[in-house]
């Protein structure tokens, strides 16, 4: 069973290790198709439209070990990477979880429900909620 833990607000590249900085750049590219460095994505310039606002980083752990790093940004978007890598395994699009691997999607969706990260209006909320109840 996976759990979202260790939520932190990210406002500067100084808070990140090199892999996480690459992840931020990839998050931005997934969001707007622009290849920009992490420091630009986390810029404090108010007019810069390439900045990822409301940027949070969560660890997703299973059996006490980190398995994913989950980024949430722009209020309704996000990207989930295999921990310690730049391999994107899922995305959050308009608050909904998108993942090609159905087993992983169920694992992440269930964990998002338990963490209060998936809105109840999402089309898969009830499915993930039932799965969360079964794992408790």
Task: Describe it.
About 30% of the residues lie in helices and about 30% in strands. It contains 4 helices and 6 strands; from the N terminus they run E-H-H-E-E-E-E-E-H-H. Strands 1-2-3-4-5-6 form a 6-stranded antiparallel β-sheet, with helices on both faces. Helix 3 packs across helix 4 (about 125-135). The longest helix has 15 residues, at about 20-30. The protein is globular and about 45 Å long. The mean pLDDT is about 95.
Strand portion? 25-35%
Radius of gyration: 15 Å
Strand order of the largest sheet: 1-2-3-4-5-6
The share of residues in helices is 25-40%
Mean pLDDT: 94
Largest sheet: 6 strands, antiparallel
Number of helices: 4
- Gap between N and C termini: 9 Å
Q: Secondary-structure element sequence?
A: EHHEEEEEHH
Number of strands: 6
Overall structural class, as computed from helix and strand content, comes to alpha+beta
Low-confidence stretches: none
What is the general shape? globular
Overview in brief:
The model has no long low-confidence stretch (mean pLDDT 94). This protein has four helices and six strands.
Give the secondary structure arrangement, pairings included:
Layout: E1 2-9, H1 18-32, H2 38-41, E2 56-62, E3 65-73, E4 77-82, E5 88-93, E6 96-98, H3 102-115, H4 125-135
Antiparallel strand pairs: 1-2, 2-3, 3-4, 4-5, 5-6
Helix pairs in contact: 3-4
Keywords:
globular; 136 residues; single chain; 4 helices; alpha+beta
């Amino acid at each position: 069973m996976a759990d979202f833990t260790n939520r932190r607000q990210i406002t500067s590249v100084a808070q990140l290790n090199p892999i996480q900085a690459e992840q931020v750049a990839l998050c931005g590219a997934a969001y707007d198709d622009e290849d920009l460095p992490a420091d630009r994505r986390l810029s404090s310039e108010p007019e810069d439209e390439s900045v990822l606002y409301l940027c949070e980083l969560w660890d997703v752990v299973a059996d006490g070990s980190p398995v994913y790093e989950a980024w949430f940004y722009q209020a309704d978007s996000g990207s989930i990477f295999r921990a310690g890598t730049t391999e994107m395994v899922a995305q959050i699009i308009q608050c909904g979880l998108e993942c090609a691997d159905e087993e992983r999607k169920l694992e992440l969706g269930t964990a998002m429900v338990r963490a209060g990260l998936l809105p109840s209006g999402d089309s898969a909320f009830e499915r993930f909620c039932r799965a969360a109840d079964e794992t408790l």
